[in-house]
Amino acid sequence: MADGRSASSQVERWVSFATTIVAPATLLSALLFYFGYVSSRSQYEYFGVDVDTIGLSTQDYVMRSPQPLLVPLLVLALGSAGLLALHTWIRGRVASAVAAGTEDENPTTYAESTQHLEKTSRMVRGSVALGLAVLGAGVVLLFTYGYVRDWAFYDLVTPLLLAVGAALIGYASRVRNLLDRLQAEHARAGPNTEPVSTTLAYAKGSLLLRRAAGVLICVVIAACIFWATATVAQWSGRGLAQYDARHLSRLPSVILDTKERLFLRSPGIEETILPASEGQTFHYRYRRLRLLIQGHDRMFLVPDKWSASNSTLVIPLDGTVRVQFQFQNQHP
Q: With contact defined as beta carbons under 8 Å apart, do 134 and 168 qualify?
């Protein structure tokens, strides 16, 4: 019986361990899929193609996600490192000021420490005011979307303002609560008195309300980072499309044979009538085409020279056309 309970407990531990891994992995896969989809949609929309008609798989979108996510991840990593260093410096400054006043019985040292704490407190209040101003600017942009939606940088500036403003308010509020607690202890300690314990309760506000406000601020920051990252992914896809349009010669060259004339409207495509022969089912040949992308059951071809009046040719892979890939390389 004991062995059975032990085996059951071990299985439960493994299930719990697997759950802690599977849930974050599923969330990460969903995020990679989304950003890969946003980038690909913007990229092929430049060529007049709806990405949903290509038939890319979930794995295809996940594999395309590192390109648009590289810059946001680097910015977040460097920004987090800088903020962590700034946080460490601020806490060190506050702690040293309090220690100087509580451990030294010299009245002059105590006065200097008090002045330093008051100066830091004013800086914190100024940070809260700045955060409110930045957050207010983001809210104004958010509610005036109908008037400024054509601004090219709207989808990046608005979430950044909201995120920075909320982060400033949240962090400055936490530092202010810390200062209030330390100043109360500092005042009670005073010169020529015994230091008191640093485990004083918060003097202002409800702990529950502060935690709720902290959760809401985290939600706002996370949503704004998601919004800004999606915007960067969209810009990344458009940038890839523009690069491909400027360097169409790097795409695979295609020779297309068809049974019927296609009446293509894009300039630069060469049409040749194939000579009639017995058993010949393909009568027209088209050159100067490039393979943009191949989906599950179709190919998307574009002319090899970019023009604003170009169109993308959709070719089904069902035997109704004949496709040759042309290359020119060095001698082996």
A: yes
Listed by start position, the domains of the chain span 62-246, 251-326
Calpha distance 235→241 (Å, rounded) = 10
Phi, psi of 198 (to 5 degrees): -90, 10
Residue type, position 7, single letter: A
| Cβ-based neighbours of 107, under 8 Å, separated by 6 or more | 191
Read off the pLDDT of residues 273-311 as tens digits, 9 standing for 90 and up. Answer: 988 888 788 899 999 999 999 988 889 999 988 887 788
Q: What are phi and psi of 177, to 5 degrees?
A: -65, -40
Distances from the Cα of 14 to the Cα of 4, 27, 199, angstroms: 15, 20, 39
Specify the residue for token string 């207010």. Answer: 136
Measured distance CA(220)–CA(201) in Å, rounded: 28
Rounded CA-CA distance 41/48 in Å is 10
Distance (Å, whole) CA 108 – CA 113: 9
Q: Rounded to whole angstroms, how far apart are CA atoms 161 and 227?
A: 12
Count other Cβ atoms within 10 Å, centred on residue 147.
9
Higher per-residue confidence, 24 vs 323: 323
Given the DSSP bridges, would you call strands 284-294 and 321-326 parallel, antiparallel or unpaired?
A: unpaired
Q: Tell me the pTM.
A: 0.75
Three-class SS of residue 133? helix
| Strand, coil or helix: 318 | coil
Rounded to whole angstroms, how far apart are CA atoms 254 and 288? 7
Residue 52 corresponds to which tokens in the numbers above? 């949903």
Q: What are phi and psi of 318, to 5 degrees?
A: -130, 15
- Cα–Cα dist 297/314, whole Å: 10
Going by C-alpha positions, the residue among 262, 264, 304, 302 that lies closest to residue 284 is: 262
The answer to whether the CB of 303 falls within 8 A of the CB of 269 is yes
Sorted by sequence, the CB contacts under 8 Å of residue 191 that are 6+ apart come out as 104, 105, 106, 107, 110
- For residue 206, the Cα-to-chain-centroid distance in whole angstroms is 34
* CA-wise closest residue to 294 among 316, 272, 267, 279: 316
